[in-house]
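Help needed: design a sequence for this.
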């Protein structure tokens, strides 16, 4: 077999993800896989932790490393299946502003619920759920990746974790927990898929391009205000106007039957109400009720496709 050919798939503040290709040889097809390595030596300990969390789980909707190893510079490396579509965010960005078909959105949402329920049952909380951290295969099966912020045990969280815009807002003022982080992140993901716009209200590339100092102030201001910015406003508007983003893909030029509209509104309003979870208003859906609401919407939409 020839050498592995490596190319960079993504670089973040913390790590580089590579695609490795074994060339085809002796009648065998080429093989692709991915490798994630930390950018800096100081992140090694975080990697060790991420690897330990990931290898302790075994579920179809949780990314399971193929191997945990060390690269040629002795840095810890996570070897994993390569996902040609990348993350849900990568897929959405590829569609150039088009949102994912609703049935598919709901399927991804429910797969993430499955993975979360499993992780929570083992006392593991992801704490950084967002479209960029859910990877998809060509058949749209999805796995939760990037367990770098995961917590083992539902201890109180007193310092913000994960990604700005995807943290439960009350965490800025008081201790919160992994359960609330994951439900909030899940619903924020649902929001992003529905609207095609990040819940943090500021495009990732724009945010990334800001000077470091500005980023720090912006982050502090958002946390202090406890706002998921314009997310809730945008959804309320869509609901008031009776427009559900993406619905026309399912029912082109067709009036939406009331039961289907109701199930979809229920899903949208779960997202909207979670975003209205400002400090002081404690309502938050459980994973179980999020599942019931999303399953109902998905079932109605699928039935609709088979109605004449
Ligand atoms: N196995 C994989 N196959 C294909 N693409 C992948 C794979 N793993 C990661 N990626 C791509 O790399 C990106 C970053 O991966 P990951 O979230 O694990 O790293 P990270 O350093 O923790 O990122 P961030 O700090 O931005 O959350 C993903 O959003 C996705 O685009
Ligand atoms: Mg990530």
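Sure. Designed sequence:
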């Amino acid at each position: 077999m020839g050498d592995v050919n490596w190319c960079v798939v993504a670089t973040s503040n913390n790590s580089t993800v590579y695609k490795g290709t074994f060339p085809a040889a002796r009648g065998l097809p080429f093989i692709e896989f991915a490798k994630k390595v930390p950018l800096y030596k100081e992140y090694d300990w975080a990697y060790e932790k991420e690897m330990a969390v990931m290898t302790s789980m075994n579920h179809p909707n949780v990314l399971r490393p193929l191997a945990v190893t060390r690269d040629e510079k002795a840095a810890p490396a996570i070897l994993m299946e390569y996902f040609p579509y990348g993350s849900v965010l990568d897929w959405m960005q590829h569609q150039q502003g088009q949102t994912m078909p609703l049935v598919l959105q709901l399927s991804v949402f429910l797969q993430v619920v499955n993975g979360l329920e499993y992780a929570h049952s083992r006392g593991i909380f992801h704490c950084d759920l967002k479209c960029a951290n859910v990877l998809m295969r060509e058949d749209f099966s999805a796995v939760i990746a990037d367990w770098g912020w995961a917590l083992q045990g539902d201890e109180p969280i007193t310092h913000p974790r994960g990604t700005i815009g995807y943290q439960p807002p009350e965490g800025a003022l008081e201790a919160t927990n992994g359960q609330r982080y994951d439900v909030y992140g899940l619903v924020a993901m649902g929001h992003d898929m529905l609207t095609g716009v990040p819940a943090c209200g500021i495009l990732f590339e724009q945010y990334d391009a800001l000077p470091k100092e500005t980023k720090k102030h912006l982050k502090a201001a958002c946390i202090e205000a406890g706002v998921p910015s314009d997310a809730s406003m945008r959804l309320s508007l869509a609901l008031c106007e009776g427009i559900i983003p993406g619905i026309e893909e399912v029912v082109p030029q067709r009036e939406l039957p009331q039961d289907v509209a109701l199930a979809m509104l229920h899903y949208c309003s779960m997202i909207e109400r979670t975003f209205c979870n400002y400090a002081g208003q404690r309502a938050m859906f459980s994973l179980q009720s999020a599942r019931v609401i999303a399953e109902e919407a998905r079932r109605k939409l699928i039935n609709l496709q088979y109605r004449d």
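The radius of gyration is 20 Å.
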